[in-house]
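$ ./design --mode recover --in tokens.txt
reading tokens...
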């Protein structure tokens, strides 16, 4: 399907974040969630976590720029047939990338049914 307008897509990302349990959201530390059209290096990538997972932060972690969760609008819309599928894919992508912040790797995500 054609990409949703940016404001609508950002609304879907915000809705997906609202679905994450408050207890988990409270544990997010120094993270920003951003929407971009595509990853320039991997155009088919749906989302990306860049930063230091909580499990990797040691005594020397401090003063770092916020970790970034990128959600790629054009890539997600490109694999979906309708807006309902976009809603589902955005939710999966947001949960997937938040999991990386908590140190959950791809193998574990797949085992949990999120990959």
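writing sequence...
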């Amino acid at each position: 399907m054609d990409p949703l307008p940016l404001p609508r897509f950002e609304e879907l990302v915000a809705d997906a974040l609202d679905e994450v349990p408050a207890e988990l959201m409270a544990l997010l530390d120094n993270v920003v969630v951003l929407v971009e059209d595509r990853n320039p290096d991997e155009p088919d990538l749906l989302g990306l976590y860049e930063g230091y997972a909580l499990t990797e932060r040691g005594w020397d972690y401090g003063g770092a720029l916020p970790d970034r969760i990128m959600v790629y609008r054009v890539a997600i819309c490109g694999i979906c047939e309708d807006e309902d599928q976009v809603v589902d894919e955005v939710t999966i992508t947001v949960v997937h990338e938040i999991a990386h912040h908590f140190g959950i790797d791809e193998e574990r995500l797949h085992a949990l049914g999120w990959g």
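exit 0
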